[in-house]
Amino acid sequence: MDRTHFINPPKKRIKNKGSTALSRFDNQKLFSLYEYDSFSIVAAICQMLYLKTGTTRQWRCAASGVLCFTKDYKKKAYLLRMYCLEKRKCIWEEPL
After folding, report:
1. Res 5 pLDDT > 70
2. Closest Cα partner for 29 from 37, 18, 42?
3. DSSP 47-80
4. Interstrand relation of 77-84 and 58-72 (parallel, antiparallel or unpaired)
5. pLDDT at position 66, please?
6. Which residues contact 20 (CB under 8 A, 6 or more apart)?
7. Which residue among 34, 45, 58, 93 is buried most deeply as judged by most CB within 10 Å?
8. Are the C-beta atoms of 82 and 92 separated by less than 8 Å?
9. Is the separation of the CB atoms in 79 and 96 below 8 Å?
10. Is residue 90 within 8 Å of 72, Cβ to Cβ?
């Protein structure tokens, strides 16, 4: 047996964690949208807002969906990703 296995044991992959606010079916739908080798550490329902400037400064809703703190092994990065379950796609992404 290779001694390096004992010195540097293989790292365990993260398991997907959904949102408790979503049903099991919706969590499974969310997990199916992830890219290969991406896993959700935590997820929450959210609205993304932006500030409309001009004469009246107001907050406007840009999108609603599920925001996920994600580990992407392929990109070797942690990301915030927002998914729309109705459109079945990622609508926003921000590397951390």
Report:
1. no
2. 18
3. EEEEEEPSSS-EEEEEEEEEEEEEEETTTTEEEE
4. antiparallel
5. 98
6. none
7. 34
8. yes
9. yes
10. no
pLDDT at 1: 53
Q: State which H helix or E strand residue 46 sits in.
A: strand 38-52
In-domain check, residue 1? no
Quick check: 43 and 19 in contact, CB under 8 A?
yes
pLDDT tens-digit profile of 12-29? 777 899 999 999 999 999
Does residue 26 sit in helix, strand or coil? Answer: helix
Range of the domain at 48: 12-95
Domain presence at residue 50: yes
In a domain? residue 6: no
Domain count, the chain: 1
Is 70 contained in some domain?
Answer: yes
38, HSE (Cβ side, Cα atoms, 13 Å): 20
